Amino acid sequence: MNAGSINDNFNKGQALADKTADTVQSGIRTAKTAATEAADKFSDSVGKAKNRLGATMDNAADEAKSIASKARESLSAATDTVRARVSDVGDSVVSYTKDNPVKALLLSAAVGVVIGALATTLVRVRD
Questions:
Q1: Considering the domain boundaries, does residue 106 fall inside one?
Q2: Is residue 104 within 8 Å of 97, Cβ to Cβ?
Q3: How far apart are CA 36 and CA 43, in angstroms?
Q4: Parent domain of 60
Q5: How distant, in Å, are the alpha carbons of 12, 20, 39 from that of 25?
Q6: What is the mean pLDDT of residues 6-31?
Q7: 101-126 and 3-99 are packed helices; what angle lies between their axes, rounded to 10 degrees?
Q8: Looking at the 3D structure of the chain, how many domains does it have?
Q9: Among residues 76, 56, 80, which one has the least CA distance to residue 68?
Q10: Are 69 and 62 in contact (CB under 8 A)?
């Protein structure tokens, strides 16, 4: 082999190496661009999902507040109804006691005996 053919082979090898390096760099640029585009699309998707989720969460919070408000109103109305009925029962007991004092006293005594018997039975069952 002479110096010219070695030089020629060296130049061909150098050209091949340069071409390979260019191809690799081009591939890296293409991959980097594709990765950047994919990341941008993913970021956009996440942003859109976050916006939709935020709106959904806001709607859910508003709905929960509405339900809580309705429950509070219903509970308030039920409490008022119970208070009115308890007051009516109390008035009825007072009225019955005034109209029938002997019967009311005997009824109270009977209820006291029943409660005492139940209490005694419960105490004996525990021992």
A1: no
A2: yes
A3: 10
A4: 3-91
A5: 20, 9, 21
A6: 74
A7: 130
A8: 1
A9: 76
A10: no
Q: What is the pTM of this model?
A: 0.41
Q: Which residue type does 27 have?
A: G
Q: Is residue 114 part of a domain?
A: no
Instruction: Evaluate whether 55 touches 48 at the Cβ level (below 8 Å).
Output: no
Q: Is residue 117 part of a domain?
A: no
Task: Look at residue 11 and tell me if it is in a domain.
Answer: yes
95: its two tokens: 């009225």
Largest Cα span, the chain: 142
Q: What is the pLDDT of residues 57-110, one digit of tens each?
A: 778 888 888 888 888 888 888 888 888 888 888 888 888 888 888 888 898 899
Q: What would the pLDDT profile of 43-67 be if each residue is shown by its tens digit? A: 777 778 777 777 787 788 888 888 8
Size of the chain, expressed as the number of residues it contains: 127
CA distance 43 to 46: 5
Return the residue matching tokens 């690799």: 24
Q: How far apart are CA 76 and CA 80, in angstroms?
A: 6
Average pLDDT over residues 11-35: 78
